[in-house]
Amino acid sequence: MSAAAKTVQKSVDRLRGQMIRTARRFRDYNFRQYFVQHVKDDFAALAKLSEEEQRKFLATEGRDKLRQLQRMALVNQMYAKRPVYFDTAAQKPHRRQDDGTGKPVIE
Question: What is the full DSSP assignment across 7-55?
């Protein structure tokens, strides 16, 4: 792999990471899952393209798609409703309380 190819691959990987991090900023679970999967699918398809096509994608579409995703995530954060069950359940600590008998204590 040439130095230019490594540079392109590094740029593609960096852009993919930025887009996935941005997609994870959506508050709504369904939007978040959709955009994370969408980014992964887009970059899986991009990996099958030639180095020149990847370079062209980075120069034309890549940064624009990242900025668009960032704007959508920001708007979603501003107007998102209450968190869905999956989000609230993931934030609660799962602690088992017992009084030494091995049975959970009901509060």
Answer: HHHHHHHHHHHHHHHHHTT-SSHHHHHHHHHHHHHHHHHHHTS-HHHHH
List, for residues 13-45, the tens digit of each pLDDT value: 999 999 999 999 998 888 999 999 999 999 999
First-to-final CA distance of the chain:
62
Angle between helix 63-79 and helix 3-23 axes, rounded to 10 deg: 10
From 85, 15, 7, 21, select the one nearest 51 (Cα to Cα).
7
Entry pTM: 0.71
Q: What is the mean pLDDT of residues 91-105?
A: 61
Tell me the domain boundaries of the chain.
3-84
Which of 28-32, 38-42, 81-85, 97-101 is the most confident on average? 38-42
76: β partners:
none
| Spatial separation of the C-alpha atoms in residues 84 and 30, rounded to whole Å | 9
